[in-house]
Write a structure and sequence with these properties.
This protein has a single domain, classed as Nucleoside Triphosphate Pyrophosphohydrolase (Alpha-Beta Complex), CATH 3.90.79.10. The protein contains three helices and nine strands, in the order E-E-E-E-E-H-E-E-E-E-H-H. With 136 residues, it is an alpha+beta fold. The strands form two sheets. Strands 1, 5, 6, 7 and 8 form a five-stranded mixed β-sheet that branches. The protein is globular, with a radius of gyration of 14 Å.
Length: 136
Amino acid sequence: MQLPECFYRVSVKALVMEGENRFLLVREDNGFWELPGGGLDFGEDPEQGLRREVSEEMGLEIAFLAEHPSYFFTTINHKGIYIANVVYLARFEHLMFTPTPECVEVAFFTPDEVLAAKNMYPNVTEFAKIFRTGSR
């Protein structure tokens, strides 16, 4: 399938913080770590999409979701597809998730821990670089 040059898969992600320098990642059953959230469906509102993804992948509800994204960046994912990542500051009521193939473990990481690890998706590594520099 040939995609136009302007095509990006849009992904909505939750930035759940622990302190000022640690953010939540979820480990998928393939061993790779990812920010909570996922692909935005066609015609879907970003906030609704993020709530849906967190519910489907973690069995959790979002207690707080920022009105506007905190980060927006593009990268190429592990499949070679260009993706646009829209990252919203969020809080969950708790972290007692329901395991699924897309979430078998949760943990908080610093940007340096992400950059030193080998099992991070490319967008997570890119996000850690941006987060570390304080760019938005």
